[in-house]
Write a structure and sequence with these properties.
- This protein has about 350 residues and is α+β, with helices and mostly antiparallel strands.
- The chain has 2 domains: about 180 residues, Butyryl-CoA Dehydrogenase, subunit A, domain 3, CATH 1.20.140.160; about 110 residues, Nuclear Transport Factor 2, Chain: A.
- Helix 2 packs parallel to helix 4, helix 10 crosses helix 11 and helix 12 packs antiparallel against helix 13.
- The longest helix is centred in the first third of the chain and has 18 residues.
- The N terminus is likely disordered.
C-alpha cells in the first residue's frame, strides 16, 4: 500500500516522535495558529481513522480492550493538539505517530501477552482445570468490524485479515516494542523505511536493522507476515462450518471427530490448560467439558476468522470461539471464557435470545 509521508511536525500531549524532541527548529518560534473553524468536521476527520488505528494498536498490544483505550487516548491527544497541527504531514500519519507513542508508553515494563500453547506443553485430559491466569497474560480476540477498515482493494482486505490472526498477533508479542512497530508499519501497512524512521524519530539504517531482527524472530517462531493469504470462505469451508455447528450443538462426538484435524488444538483462556489431538478434545468434551452439551452457537467474526458466541443449554454465555481451518478440517478451537466483557464487545446479549449487548 502506498502511504503518504510522515512529518516531524508535532502536537501537544505526546504527539511528538517516540524518540523525544519537539520537532521544531531550535530558536524558531512556531507561527501563530488559529482555532479550526469547523470543530465538528475535525472530529469527523479524526474518527474516519478509528478502525485502522484500532487494528494497529491491537497488533501492538494484543488486547482489544487495551487497543480501544489506546485509540481513545490517541483521539484525545489529537483533539487537544489539532489547532497546533500544521498540516505538513498527512492527518493519517500524524495520528499514527500519536498512536505509536501511546502504545510504546503502555508497553514499557509490561509482560508480553501470549496464547496457552506459547507458555507450556499440551495438557492431558486429566489435568486439573485450575482457576486461570490474569487477563493481562493472554492475547484476546477482537471483532473484525473493530479493526478491519473498509478497503477498495480486496487484496488489501485479505492481507489485513491475515495480520490479525491470533497466531500472528502472538508472534508479534515476541518482538521488542519498537521492533513490533517497525514490522507492522513496514510489512503490514507498507510504509517506507524513511516514513517509519521519521515517525519514530530514528534513522533509515536503524529501521532496516530493526526490521531484519524482527523478521528473524518471527521466522524462528514459525509465523510471518508473508504467510499465504487466504481468500474469503468458499462453499466447502462454509459447509465445514455448518457441519461443525451441527455436530457441536447436537453434541455428536462422532460427527465432531469427523470435522476435526488429527492434530487440532483446543485452548480456553484464561485457563492454562490446552489440548492437542482430536481424541483428547473429544475425551475432554465427554468429561470436564460435558457442560457444553446442549449449547447454541451464534456466528460472529473475529481476528479475520469465523467465530461463534457459545451459549450453554440454560442460555448463559460460555465462550467466544475463534475457528481455524486447513485442508478441509478444523485445526484450532480457540475458546475465550471472559464472557462478561467479550459478549458485549461482540454485540452479543448476556443471555441467549436477549437484547444485543444486554
Amino acid at each position: 500500500m502506498k502511504r503518504s509521508s510522515t512529518s516531524g511536525t508535532t502536537a501537544a500531549d505526546g504527539a511528538g516522535p517516540a524518540g523525544g524532541g519537539t520537532g521544531r527548529t531550535p530558536g524558531k518560534e512556531p507561527a501563530p495558529r488559529t482555532e479550526p473553524a469547523d470543530r465538528t468536521g475535525s472530529v469527523d476527520r479524526l474518527e474516519a481513522h478509528r478502525a485502522e488505528l484500532t487494528g494497529y494498536c491491537y497488533r501492538m498490544l494484543g488486547s482489544a480492550f487495551e487497543a480501544e483505550d489506546a485509540v481513545q487516548e490517541t483521539m484525545v491527544r489529537a483533539w487537544r493538539g489539532y489547532d497546533r497541527f500544521e498540516g505538513r504531514a498527512s492527518l493519517r500519519s500524524w495520528l499514527y505517530r500519536i498512536a505509536t507513542n501511546v502504545c510504546l508508553d503502555l508497553l514499557k515494563g509490561g509482560q508480553r501477552r501470549a496464547r496457552p500453547m506459547d507458555l507450556a506443553s499440551p495438557s492431558s485430559v486429566d489435568t486439573p482445570v485450575g482457576t486461570g491466569l490474569p487477563e493481562a497474560t493472554w492475547i484476546g480476540p477482537v471483532p473484525d468490524q473493530r479493526v478491519l477498515a473498509l478497503a477498495a482493494d480486496p487484496a488489501e482486505t485479505a492481507v489485513a485479515r491475515e495480520s490479525v490472526r491470533l497466531a500472528f498477533i502472538a508472534a508479534l508479542q515476541r518482538l521488542a516494542p519498537r521492533q513490533r512497530a517497525v514490522l507492522i508499519l513496514r510489512e503490514v501497512l507498507s510504509w517506507s523505511a524513511s516514513e517509519v524512521a521519521e515517525l519514530l524519530g530514528s534513522s533509515v539504517a536503524s529501521v532496516n536493522s530493526a526490521l531484519q531482527r524482527a523478521r528473524a524472530t518471527l521466522a524462528a517462531s514459525g509465523d510471518t507476515a508473508a504467510d499465504v493469504v487466504r481468500q474469503p470462505l468458499d462453499e466447502a469451508q462454509q459447509a465445514l462450518l455448518r457441519r461443525y455447528v451441527d455436530a457441536f450443538e447436537r453434541f455428536d462426538m462422532d460427527a465432531l471427530t469427523a470435522v476435526l484435524h488429527e492434530d487440532s488444538t483446543l485452548s480456553m483462556p484464561p485457563l492454562e490448560l490446552w489440548l492437542r489431538g482430536r481424541e483428547d478434545i473429544v475425551k475432554w468434551m465427554l468429561g470436564p467439558g460435558c457442560g457444553c452439551e446442549g449449547s447454541h452457537l451464534v456466528p460472529v467474526a473475529a481476528n479475520g476468522r469465523p467465530a461463534f458466541g457459545q451459549y450453554r443449554a440454560d442460555g448463559t454465555p460460555w465462550a467466544i470461539q475463534v475457528i481455524e481451518t486447513a485442508d478441509g478440517r478444523i485445526t484450532a478451537l480457540q475458546c475465550f471464557l471472559d464472557t462478561e466483557r467479550l459478549f458485549p464487545l461482540f454485540g452479543l446479549p448476556l443471555r441467549h435470545g436477549g437484547a444485543p449487548g444486554a
